[in-house]
């Protein structure tokens, strides 16, 4: 009995003195140290429940043609399809969530990647659901899911689809769309306004936001989301339905050792310049969102300097002629449309004619000084961009709807009028004392002076 008790005691002592728990902790720590850390999670929001459905499938296949290997990245795609424009891949027309994997056949026309369950959005990998991708709640819950299921050092959000600009209701694809929209959902007949987009991504901790849409790199957009990421990448004008080249983008990015935010921005810009190098008016910009506040201030200062110098019909006509005929501009070729101008070129062209705008030497110098300060602010805010015409510092701003190529509409949309009763106005409009038109015209606003001021 004593021997039995002794051996039992010895076994108990060995159990607690052999430190298997410590060894297990060390083993777990080693496993954690050697486990590859996810550097990036890419969230691609394909709002393709519209006439871009076929283009979405094509870009999806480009993502699958990438050889990801052991790269520390994950790519998830929310794909919302239309019932009408593309009949491939089973011709389903709801909303599905995928994790992109490499297609062993390379670039094909068949979706290869697995579907995902997403409790946050009520999505199942084996049943069909129709979501309204114009609903900002869908976007915010998708980001929540991505951060929970695919935690990473960095998160990139790419908005894919139509970018409508400040378009009138008569020329919109969806009813009642007077606001800047970043997603169009034909099935639900709705859009996501820019302020709604800003609220959906607020506080999400994104590193990069990309707009694979028309009219992304404009002041109204980046000012709204200036605190929500480090880098924004988009185009100030139209882009073709083929959009970005995702195979070239990721193949270029994944070979870079640092996989930094700057690396990603450079890869987006590079693939775009390669795909659209021969397309007139093509451009893409990398915008440092932390610098947008200062850019906004300097743009308003310049606008105010010009506005205060316009005191006669003749000086107004001189400035307006530059804006409508000589400044680099962007607009849809079907009318009514919206006129956007390049901010840097606007400052150059109005500075050139400052002697014709005003005879006051002090006002002339004020315009020149403000233009120089605006150019400096642009250099910090848009440190890298590409344009087919060779220009730099590419970022646009809305001027007014057009009835023809150089025929302005009689008024702006209510949502673009500072102090109007329109709901959900863009922050740029409300905060802009010297550019945006006012519900009661003011002498300090450049657009008021150009279009509404009674001389």
Commentary on this structure:
It is elongated, with a radius of gyration of 27 Å. Helix 3 packs parallel to helix 7 (246-253) and helix 4 (136-149) runs parallel beside helix 5. It starts with a helix and ends with a helix. The chain has helices at residues 2-17, 20-34, 53-64, 136-149, 194-201, 219-224, 246-253, 261-275, 292-309, 313-326, 343-352, 354-357, 361-381, 427-431, 446-451; strands spanning 40-47, 73-80, 95-99, 154-160, 181-185, 190-193, 208-212, 231-234, 283-288, 329-330, 337-342, 384-387, 396-404, 407-408. The chain has an 8-stranded mixed sheet, sandwiched between helices. With 455 residues, it is α/β, with parallel strands linked by helices. The relative contact order is 0.10. It is 38% helix and 16% strand. It is built from 15 helices and 14 strands. It has 2 domains: 40-276, no CATH class; 294-379 and 397-451, no CATH class. Residues 1-36 and 166-178 have low confidence and may be disordered. The longest helix has 21 residues, at 361-381.
């Amino acid at each position: 009995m004593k021997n039995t008790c002794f051996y039992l005691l010895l076994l108990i002592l060995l159990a607690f003195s052999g430190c298997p728990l410590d060894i297990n902790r060390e083993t777990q720590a080693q496993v954690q140290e050697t486990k590859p850390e996810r550097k990036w999670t890419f969230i691609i929001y394909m709002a393709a429940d519209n006439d871009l459905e076929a283009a979405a499938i094509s870009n999806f296949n480009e993502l699958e043609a990438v050889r990801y290997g052991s790269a520390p990245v994950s790519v998830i795609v929310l794909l919302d399809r239309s019932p009408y424009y593309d009949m491939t891949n089973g011709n389903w027309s709801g909303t599905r969530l995928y994790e992109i994997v490499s297609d062993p056949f390379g670039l094909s026309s068949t979706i290869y990647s697995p579907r995902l369950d997403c409790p946050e959005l009520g999505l199942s990998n084996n049943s069909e659901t129709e979501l309204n991708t114009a609903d900002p709640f869908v976007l915010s819950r998708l980001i929540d899911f991505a951060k929970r299921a695919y935690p990473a050092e960095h998160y990139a959000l790419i908005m894919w689809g139509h970018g409508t600009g400040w378009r009138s209701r008569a020329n919109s694809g969806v009813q009642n769309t007077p606001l800047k929209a970043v997603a169009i959902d034909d099935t639900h007949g709705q859009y996501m306004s820019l302020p709604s987009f800003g609220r959906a991504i607020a506080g999400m901790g994104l590193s990069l936001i990309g707009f694979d849409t028309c009219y992304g790199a404009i002041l109204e957009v980046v000012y709204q989301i200036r605190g929500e990421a480090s880098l924004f990448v988009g185009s100030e004008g139209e882009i073709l339905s083929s959009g970005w080249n995702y195979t070239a983008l990721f193949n270029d990015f994944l070979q870079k050792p640092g996989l930094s935010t700057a690396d990603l921005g450079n890869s987006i810009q590079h693939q775009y310049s390669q795909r659209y190098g021969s397309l007139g008016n093509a451009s893409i910009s990398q915008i440092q969102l932390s610098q947008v506040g200062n850019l906004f201030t300097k743009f308003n200062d310049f606008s105010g300097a010009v506005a205060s110098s316009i005191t006669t019909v003749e000086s107004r006509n001189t400035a307006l002629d530059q804006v409508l005929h000589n400044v680099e501009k962007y607009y849809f070729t079907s009318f009514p449309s919206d006129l956007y101008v390049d901010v840097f070129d606007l400052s150059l062209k109005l500075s050139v004619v400052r002697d014709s705008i005003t005879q006051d030497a002090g006002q002339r110098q004020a315009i020149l000084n403000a233009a120089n300060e605006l150019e400096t602010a642009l250099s910090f805010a848009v440190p890298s961009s590409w344009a087919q015409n060779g220009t730099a510092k590419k970022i646009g701003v809305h001027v007014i709807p057009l009835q023809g190529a150089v025929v302005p509409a009689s008024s702006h949309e209510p949502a673009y009028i500072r102090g109007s009763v329109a709901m959900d106005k863009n922050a740029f409009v409300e905060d802009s004392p010297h550019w945006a038109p006012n519900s009661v015209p003011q002498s300090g606003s450049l657009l008021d002076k150009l279009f509404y001021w009674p001389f």
